[in-house]
Amino acid sequence: MDATSHDPPWRRREFLRQSATLALAALAGARATGAEGEAGATTAPLLRAPWPAGKQTVARIGLGTWQVFDVGSSREERAPLAAVLHTLAEAGGDIVDTSPMYAPAEAVLGELAAETGLRARLFFATKVWTRGEAGGVAQMEESLRKLRTDHVELMQVHNLVDWRTQLRTLRRWKDEGRVGAIGVTHYLESAYDDVERIVRTEPIDCVQLPLSLMEPEAARRVLGACAERAVAFIANRPFGGGGSFRRVRGTPLPSWTAEYGIGSWAQFFLKWILSHPEVTCAIPGTGNPRHMTDNLGAARGRLPDAAGRKRMADFWRSV
């Protein structure tokens, strides 16, 4: 519940009006600086990938909310996040990933999506992160309440916590239409063997793991299983928790990256990920609409083939 919940209705309306004004101003700034060439962005349609649950597709760049949506209720804090959601949706992006683990992120996302009228254009992915059937049900009900929806497009078992119990509930919720797809996540390489076994033996729709030039192990150990089983793969931590940027600080982009329409290091890192055909989507987190515009540029234009991907990795190792 935000700080304005007990204010008079007129004050709440004024708060929303001012938030919308700030969000639109931030969005206009993002367009002005990113529409045609800061970081190589264009207005070309976003690349999309098949989604296994149903006949839809999803944009190959989405949005993560970890830390960046951990904000208070003031319009100054929330306006840039509203602009980020507008930027994503107006470009044709859809997946927004969150979790009850991420402090107030679910509630902030739910409130902003409702207030901006963007909910119908967004693909909500959240998680269950607790033990026991009753505890899982209670937590997921609370997530739906915070997200202000009666349905999420993807529900995942976060970090494999009590995954057998939670997957049973998720299958039931999927049958009931309360979730569109189900999956599992983790963040440690030590769990990848378990994740691969689950992909090969359990009826799931999606896996979410770190994947980046700094953390490439999932590409060697899990992507193949996902492709064989037609399981979607969402790449989180695409910038290695920020370490990728620190490593290339002061290093210019190699000139040959222009072949792929790469105009920033963010696009370099993201296009390396998307060049793996098994990857459905990458979800870099940002609370800055200009960075959202830049990230979306990675889902436009030509992607590297296997030889180009190796060239990128070789250059990365040389830095």
Order of helices and strands: HEEEHEHEHEHEHEHHEHHEHH
Main sheet: strand order:
3-4-5-6-7-8-9-10
The class by helix and strand makeup works out as: alpha/beta
Instruction: Name the shape in a single word.
Output: globular
Work out the number of β strands.
Answer: 10
Helix content: 40-55%
Strand content: 5-15%
Radius of gyration: 19 Å
Number of helices: 12
Low-confidence stretches: 1-41
User: In angstroms, what separates the terminal alpha carbons?
Assistant: 47 Å
Largest sheet: number of strands, sense, barrel closure: 8 strands, parallel
Question: Key terms for this structure?
Answer:
319 residues, 45% helix, alpha/beta, disordered N terminus, two-stranded antiparallel sheet, 12% strand, single chain, 8-stranded parallel β-sheet
Quick recap of the structure?
With 319 residues, this protein is of the alpha/beta class.
Your description of this structure?
Helix 2 (75-91) links the parallel strand 3 (63-64) and strand 4 (95-97). The strands form 2 sheets. Strands 3-4-5-6-7-8-9-10 form an 8-stranded parallel beta sheet. A two-stranded antiparallel sheet has the order 1-2. Helix 1 crosses helix 2, helix 2 (75-91) packs across helix 3 (105-116) and helix 3 (105-116) runs parallel beside helix 4 (133-147). The chain is 45% helix and 12% strand. It is globular, with a radius of gyration of 19 Å. By secondary structure, the protein is α/β, with parallel strands linked by helices.
